[in-house]
Automatic annotation (TrEMBL):
This is DUF2071 domain-containing protein. It comes from the Bacteria. It comes from Asanoa ferruginea. It holds the Pfam family DUF2071. PANTHER family: DUF2071 DOMAIN-CONTAINING PROTEIN, DUF2071 FAMILY PROTEIN.
Length: 237
């Protein structure tokens, strides 16, 4: 997979903490049907993959501005897949993002044009057991309740581990134009994980079929991130 870009002029600093990556295989046509023009679903061993990733967003701030304690740390959960743009580069397409703070949700929806939802959320850490709870204010039936036990380190990530996690670009559509932003961060400190329980409807709320079978589980303590601004995507750029 690609290496982390260098973001020399970040518009945002973030830390992604206490993550769980839940991934399911999907038929590529089912995922491709939900993507905007210009993006092609990426596959691994012939299948697309859809991820459900709950975590803690921390240290959120713009350059030269200190992180505000209440606004800069909150739970978040995203539903995503992996794509290739017309520029030939790999990245992430978000079907939805849920966050526990209304102000960041409003800013992200209006300036970044990302499909954020305001949700009541919590993350509980009890030794190796991580518990994530979420339901949307607008519809309590759209939820994600997951409990995961963190396992042993993954010292040498396999090709699929990297396919699902070594992603440094996100795509969006602003005013009808495909755009991309880069996220610079170090390698994920990946661990195995065991799913203890899961009650979720966010994948289906994104328009995807209900996941089949047990998900592949990764966990991570997290990374520090520098996010670039958006730029228009064209062939070869």
């Amino acid at each position: 997979m690609s290496e982390s870009p260098v973001v020399e002029r970040p518009v945002m600093f973030q830390a992604w903490r206490d993550l769980t990556f839940l991934h399911w295989r999907y038929p590529a046509p089912a995922v491709q049907a939900l993507l905007p023009a210009g993006l092609t679903v990426e596959t691994h061993d012939g299948d697309a993959w859809v991820g459900l990733i709950p975590f803690v967003m921390a240290g959120v701030r713009a350059p030269y501005v200190p992180a505000l304690p209440w606004l800069s740390r909150f739970p978040e959960t995203n539903v995503r897949t992996y794509v290739r743009g017309p520029d030939g580069r790999s990245g992430i397409w978000f079907f939805s993002l849920d966050a526990d703070r209304l102000a960041p949700v409003v800013v992200a929806r209006t300036t970044y044009m990302l499909p954020y939802h305001w949700s009541r959320m919590s993350v509980g850490i009890d030794g190796p057991v991580h518990s994530y709870r979420s339901h949307r204010h607008a519809d309590r039936d759209q939820r994600c309740d997951a409990t995961v036990e963190v396992g042993q380190p993954i010292d040498e990530p396999a090709a699929l581990d990297l396919f699902l996690t070594a992603r440094f670009r996100l795509y969006s559509v602003r005013r009808g134009t495909l755009v991309a932003a880069d996220a610079q961060h170090g390698p994920w400190p990946l661990r195995h994980g065991t799913l203890k329980s899961l009650d979720q409807s966010l994948v289906e709320a994104a328009g995807l079929p209900t996941p089949v079978g047990e998900p592949l589980v990764h966990t991570s303590a997290g990374v520090l991130v520098r996010v670039s601004g958006w730029r228009q995507v064209t062939d070869g750029s």
